Amino acid sequence: MEGDPALRLRVFDLNCWAIRYLSKRRQERIRLIGDMLCQEDFDLVLLQEVWSEWDYSDLKVKLGGCYPFSHYFRSGVIGSGLCVFSRFPILDTLLYQYSLNGYPYMLQHGDWFCSKSVGSMGARQVLAWELASLLPCSHQLHAEYCRQKDAYLPHRLVQAWELAQFIRHTSKAADVVLLGGDLNMHPEDVGIRLLRGWTGLRDAFAEATHFEGCEDGCTFVPNNCFTDKSELLPFPLGIRIDYILYKAISNFMVKCEELKTTTGAAPGMDVPFSDHEAVMATLHIQRQRQAAGATLTTAEPVLADVVTEARTEVSVGLRAAQRQRYSSGRMALLALLLLLLQAVAALGALAGLDTGQPFPKLSFCLLAFLAIGILLLATGLHLFHTMEVKMLHSTEEQMQMVLWMLQERP
Amino acid sequence: MEGDPALRLRVFDLNCWAIRYLSKRRQERIRLIGDMLCQEDFDLVLLQEVWSEWDYSDLKVKLGGCYPFSHYFRSGVIGSGLCVFSRFPILDTLLYQYSLNGYPYMLQHGDWFCSKSVGSMGARQVLAWELASLLPCSHQLHAEYCRQKDAYLPHRLVQAWELAQFIRHTSKAADVVLLGGDLNMHPEDVGIRLLRGWTGLRDAFAEATHFEGCEDGCTFVPNNCFTDKSELLPFPLGIRIDYILYKAISNFMVKCEELKTTTGAAPGMDVPFSDHEAVMATLHIQRQRQAAGATLTTAEPVLADVVTEARTEVSVGLRAAQRQRYSSGRMALLALLLLLLQAVAALGALAGLDTGQPFPKLSFCLLAFLAIGILLLATGLHLFHTMEVKMLHSTEEQMQMVLWMLQERP
């Protein structure tokens, strides 16, 4: 069986930064991405931030010849931005939306309005006479806006946990699992360690026999003409936040032969494909005689440490969310009290009970409008933070369950 | 291997109708449910509509002795209402929220405000020396309020489809899959046929060797003192909407030995457990020599018909959603136009351009407020229906993909 024909799988992953009306030179870049994909002939193309279905349709028309199978993951109002192009038939798709994704009132960050999700699909590839199921996922986690004081860390950890759980639950019978996407996390961050440790996924960059591209495999680099240089001041080389992760289950073996990233504008072009660099991996998949078994890459005591670290961060987020739920609830209550007081005063005035100087009518009305506004806003916030508390609590509990399991195991 | 020890698994499923402040005699019923579960000693208990975490905590304390493992699926503002009690260790849990669940403005139905979901868990049971993975799901779909003109049918079909896809994607490596819950669908409805056909799940009621309980296995019956008799006028025996479904994958075999339903108040009690009857199944699980393979219970041409029927209903829903998206968009646009006209008139008045009879100020202000209100409401509705169109479209597309696959298969 060792002599079984091997499959060389070429995977392309890119955060396309294609926001209508906002992203610079979007249509031109989508056209360039399409041209390059046609020439390069990958097996699987995982794209993120294709927010407009028109862009997807344009790509689909252009790529129909080389990638006959594709799927756009629709969700939410704006969409998930995820799509997949494949040389292999897509058998089945499933989209999982993360339960937490930032705050609706952080309008300047806007993550809440996109439905950040993981899209999964089953593809089938004929390996001479054997079949291998592939489960490529394309996804994106909440962005990090300030590394020093990262208010979104608990949400990103909940997303990393849900992503890991989703992969564990959906990939049990897959031969090969592939995950490509913009994780918005540095390689040493707790979220990445949690995701890799709990799923057993391997990092193509770390495993690659041959690497070519930006130094340290960075995918968000200051040399790119679309990146904000000030954001990257602490990281002169840039950061690596786009990944291709993989693992083989059952009796398959995967090795990363080569990993490449783009390095700014391609030869003959004056514009890079996106504000992120693309990641391209060549994987070598072979059937092996002995089933490898579902092993975790991280040793269990180390994994327990990672889960403990993540759980601590989630607990910090939980306490903050509880405080915000409490303050918004109190604010709503105060606004309600003010309204009631005003109602009593108004009724008193109607009944002719007020004897002193009456409150000016205009201010009275304005105050009532203000109270109603605050009541509505604070109630909305209270409901939102109630939900946030629920999801953080639930994640913390699940992590605790895993810790018990890891400690109990002989 | 035929002589392998068999496992007799007793499963309990109940929609508890435990809404704080709204459900009649809630606390008393929760106490009774707890007492009965303690006495009966099931292996797995799947509960729905336990909306309050206090009720879950009460049950957990009471059932700690007989069911040492339990999980409450937290989600959304109100919650999922789902919980599981188990004699076997719960290894892992995952919650999937359906993407569509009714309309926020249908306040009287309220489904939108609960986060209807499917909760899944992995449990492990030592079968003498063999291990069997169980995947019990507990879930609830959108309620049916009017069978003659069922406005929620497309949403329920999307939920049934997502539930089926979730089961297909998460259960591939499970030995036994169990699904218990209130599906809000009659046994012959297209949604049930779709779910069963596409997942291969078997209906415990149809397969049971021995049955005891309400006639035709009904679980929502006019005899129950909490049900609204007028709702059940067309169905004098009641309806069967609560199910226990199962299937064995890999080399296990499951048979339903016995199915029971409760029949109103238990002896010595003056109140039934809920407005639904409970479903109790005794399953016989045995390892078998030959792997059965993942077979669908419904023959493929029949399955293709069911998927086509479901797709037609989803298309009808899609067209309705597109119409609603269009009208709400037009309404928002008209409100915006009115506001702009008013702004022009106000600016004109300020510049001293109006010569004729001025518009009364109070009416002018009231009209502006009305226009703002309509603009906000219509925009909200437009965004909601945009999302609805996206999800219906996506489901329709997935069903189309499955139809192609079914037709292409030799």
TrEMBL record, chains A, B:
<dbReference type="InterPro" id="IPR038772">
    <property type="entry name" value="Sph/SMPD2-like"/>
</dbReference>
<protein>
    <recommendedName>
        <fullName>sphingomyelin phosphodiesterase</fullName>
        <ecNumber>3.1.4.12</ecNumber>
    </recommendedName>
</protein>
<dbReference type="GO" id="GO:0016020">
    <property type="term" value="C:membrane"/>
</dbReference>
<comment type="pathway">
    <text>Lipid metabolism; sphingolipid metabolism.</text>
</comment>
<feature type="domain" description="Endonuclease/exonuclease/phosphatase">
    <location>
        <begin position="15"/>
        <end position="276"/>
    </location>
</feature>
<keyword id="KW-0460">Magnesium</keyword>
<keyword id="KW-0443">Lipid metabolism</keyword>
<keyword id="KW-0746">Sphingolipid metabolism</keyword>
<comment type="pathway">
    <text>Sphingolipid metabolism.</text>
</comment>
<keyword id="KW-0378">Hydrolase</keyword>
<dbReference type="InterPro" id="IPR005135">
    <property type="entry name" value="Endo/exonuclease/phosphatase"/>
</dbReference>
<dbReference type="InterPro" id="IPR036691">
    <property type="entry name" value="Endo/exonu/phosph_ase_sf"/>
</dbReference>
<dbReference type="GO" id="GO:0004767">
    <property type="term" value="F:sphingomyelin phosphodiesterase activity"/>
</dbReference>
<dbReference type="GO" id="GO:0006665">
    <property type="term" value="P:sphingolipid metabolic process"/>
</dbReference>
<dbReference type="GO" id="GO:0046872">
    <property type="term" value="F:metal ion binding"/>
</dbReference>
<feature type="transmembrane region" description="Helical">
    <location>
        <begin position="332"/>
        <end position="353"/>
    </location>
</feature>
<keyword id="KW-0479">Metal-binding</keyword>
<keyword id="KW-0812">Transmembrane</keyword>
<keyword id="KW-0472">Membrane</keyword>
<feature type="transmembrane region" description="Helical">
    <location>
        <begin position="359"/>
        <end position="384"/>
    </location>
</feature>
<dbReference type="Pfam" id="PF03372">
    <property type="entry name" value="Exo_endo_phos"/>
</dbReference>
<comment type="similarity">
    <text>Belongs to the neutral sphingomyelinase family.</text>
</comment>
<keyword id="KW-1133">Transmembrane helix</keyword>
